[in-house]
């Protein structure tokens, strides 16, 4: 049974959980202190973004707090880790959907006016499909930086702030992504 030290004595998770269930918010703060680093690392492993992971960790602790009445002594750390992983996956899916939606908007703008011929519309659709396919071929660490720079048209500064890294790191990632594309793609691939 896992326990934390408080004032020279150990308090088990089960005791803290019972206190939280009976309305003791201080007991929940002790649980948060005990598990916040573990949950943050778990969430960060899925999201790979510090700010998103911090926000998601706060949301997870809220979920844990509101779900505690349903907890049935099945291994607290395992239970909260499962909540954290599921929430992180949901956040990642939403983020990916937002990127896809943005890409569709950019593609729609690229499509041009309604007066285009049916042939031009079909060619544009094929080109968009090809761009999607090619973006998905990129390794994940390159796909994000290429998407942000070329599709979302973010500056190095914006990207560095969002990823919580230096501008030089963004420059290096873009440089390596371009090298990867030159090595693995041919110009004929896009025609």
From TrEMBL:
GO biological process, one term: DNA-templated transcription initiation
Gene3D superfamilies associated with the record: 1.10.1740.10, Winged helix-like DNA-binding domain superfamily/Winged helix DNA-binding domain
UniProt GO molecular function: DNA binding; sigma factor activity
SUPFAM superfamilies reported in the protein's UniProt record: Sigma2 domain of RNA polymerase sigma factors, Sigma3 and sigma4 domains of RNA polymerase sigma factors
Stretches assigned to the RNA polymerase sigma-70 region domain: 31-98
Pfam families: Sigma70_r2 (PF04542), Sigma70_r4_2 (PF08281)
InterPro entries xref list: RNA_pol_sigma-70-like, RNA_pol_sigma-70_dom, RNA_pol_sigma70_r2, RNA_pol_sigma70_r4_t2, RNA_pol_sigma_r2, RNA_pol_sigma_r3/r4-like, WH-like_DNA-bd_sf
Keywords: Sigma factor, Transcription, Transcription regulation
Residue ranges constituting the RNA polymerase sigma factor 70 region 4 type domain according to the UniProt record: 130-180
Family according to the record: Belongs to the sigma-70 factor family. ECF subfamily.
Record-given protein name: RNA polymerase subunit sigma
